[in-house]
Amino acid sequence: MGFLIAPLIIFLLIVAPIWLILHYRSKKQLAQGLSEEEYQQLNQLLTRADKMSERIQTLEALLDQESPEWRTKHEG
């Protein structure tokens, strides 16, 4: 029984407080939402997605003019 007391005391004095601090710090960060850097990255990704969408629409329009049956050839 004595061999369990030392690890238990070490756990309670060292590991448990660190664990609790890290747990509640991560909860706080989640509650705060996005950081400014994350918000900027999200906006950059949104801008890139919009540009890609426009490019895809342009490419599809060109393919529709050049080869109207391209959609049926590649769907099946």
How are the SSEs placed, and which strands pair?
Layout: H1 2-32, H2 36-66, H3 70-75
Please, could you describe this protein's structure?
The chain has 76 residues and is mostly helical. Helices cover 89% and strands 0% of the residues. It has three helices and no strands. It is elongated, with a radius of gyration of 28 Å. The relative contact order is 0.05. The mean pLDDT is 87.
Instruction: Supply Rg.
Output: 28 Å
Outline the biggest β-sheet.
none
Q: What is the number of helices?
A: 3
Provide the residue-averaged pLDDT: 87
The helix-and-strand class reads: mainly alpha
- Helical content band: over 70%
Number of strands: 0
| Gross morphology | elongated
Low-confidence stretches: none
SSE arrangement, N to C: HHH
Q: Termini separation (Å)? A: 71 Å
Proportion of residues in β-strands: under 5%
The gist of it:
With 76 residues, the chain is mainly alpha-helical. It is built from three helices and no strands.
Characteristic key phrases:
76 residues, mainly alpha, 3 helices, 89% helix, elongated
